[in-house]
Amino acid sequence: MSEETLLIDSPAAWESEAGDPFQPHGTLPRLLAGIPAQGAMGLDEHLAVHGDVPAYPRRRGRRAGESPLIEQIAQAGLRGHGGAGFPTATKLRAVADSRKRAILVVNASEGEPASLKDRTLMQTLPHLVLDGAQLAAQAVGADELIVCVCESAEASVEHTALALAERRGLPGDTTHTHLSAVPGHYVAGQESALVNHCNGGPAIPTFTPPMVFQQGVRRRPTLVANAETLAHVALIARHGPEWFRQLGTPSQPGSALVTLSGAVANPGVYEIEHGASLHSLIDAAGGALGDPRALLVGGYGGSWIAGHLLRGVALSDEHLAPHAASLGAGVVLLLSADACPVAETARVTRWLADQSAGQCGPCVHGLDSIAASVQEIAGGLAQANATQRIARLAALVRRRGACGHPDGVARMVTSALDAFAPELADHARHGPCEDCARPAQLPLPGRGHTSGTSPELVSLR
Amino acid sequence: MSQRLRVNPITCEAHGMCAELLPERISLDDWGYPIVDQEPLPPELLDHARRAAQACPTFALLLARPRERVS
Lengths: 461, 71
Fold this sequence. Notes:
The structure holds 2 protein chains of 2 kinds. By secondary structure, chain A is an alpha/beta fold. Chain A is built from 15 helices and 10 strands. Chain A folds into 3 domains: 27-245, Rossmann fold, CATH 3.40.50; 255-335, Roll (Ubiquitin-like (UB roll)), CATH 3.10.20.600; 341-437, NADH-ubiquinone oxidoreductase 51kDa subunit, iron-sulphur binding domain (de novo design (two linked rop proteins), Up-down Bundle), CATH 1.20.1440. Chain A has helices at residues 43-50, 68-76, 88-96, 117-124, 126-140, 154-166, 191-198, 227-245, 278-284, 317-320, 341-354, 361-378, 386-397, 405-419, 421-430, and strands at residues 102-108, 142-150, 176-182, 222-226, 255-262, 268-273, 294-298, 303-306, 331-335, 456-459. In chain A, β5 and β6 (268-273) form a beta hairpin. Chain B has 2 helices and 4 strands. Classes of the chains: A alpha/beta, B alpha+beta. Chains A and B meet through α3 and α12 of A and loops of B.
């Protein structure tokens, strides 16, 4: 997916599927309100659309008590939009409770090839993210902000730099602000990898503990927060938790940015209400191009759902749970009818195995073996019981790396065994199908694994 | 305080000493890397676990107290 294909849309409010008709419903867009057709929204326009950044007391010292903003975020039920879905307030509290002065890292590294939402936010609406960063920094008592943007997203890096310069002197602005371009490989955005990068090391995961909220950048307590998550913080701070909960489901309130790609008329970044139907999202994108063969949801470490099961699928974690899937980082990829799911899965699995940082034995050997087995099936060269071997290897690598990379690959491959059982059996028996030769639909960036890169800290203060 | 075994997968080099010394809790995978039972260690295994941790050539086997997971 190239930057040129990026199309941003902000569809009007979609009706809540299961909502009580007497309940007042919020409207969309929220994050994408007033999004400019091109370029970035400047500070003045941003403040005109959303209003001034509310003043919350800056946390000073452990005894000062908790920031009221953290309680608001807890009541809103905001969870992280980077993929793991961890409750944001819990994370903020862990950092706020530490004795030392904290550092806030904004994570817009977005190594996920099928995701564009974070780079889109930094490119078009940087002030919304930076508002959230400023507010979160106040709430946890951080006096330093490092904004990490993927180096491949040049416009995002550039617009973030301009926005940071524009905010100088804004009331409540964080004291020390830096921008850091992060290498684009898959695991670079993992929390400890990003901290490693900010400390001058390679952007690869480290062993924890110490957890980054205890000892992160320069051994200081560090809050690593996804860019979209902070954009939601900026709006919760302005409108409160009740407003936030007017959209979404009780267990997953609010809206989410999704990157819709594949067999749809207008792929791009969309804002949806949690629990919106897949159908409504596809409609907002001008409709599907034919009957999709399958859906990949969450990310490359997410889950495949077979095409015949897509009727009635809704986009929230509780609705996706029966499909052993979750919304993750908001990747919604429709595989077209003429694509071969076995060939696509084989290519992505190999790519993910090659994206291993090469540090942990089970990841290095396990993902390579899994990828080789899927490739053997795709080529019709597999031994009997190859799918059982893949399932066994997937179970073997889970929770055995320093980061969650092997777990994500295991999850995606396991879901493929389920969703594409007939196709896998057919390939194992008869070899490549007619569709195998088609060009890859799932983007596989040629981003090599870069190690030893020191961060380019652009100090803006 | 109950203790658990943990492996640092980055420093582990699959020497396999730990599985020799604590087969009750540690087995090896297809490539020789340890698969560790994460349940709290019973008192009678604590000494063996300590010995296994000390014997690891790369200090990758750790005895850890259970800790709340925050992120």
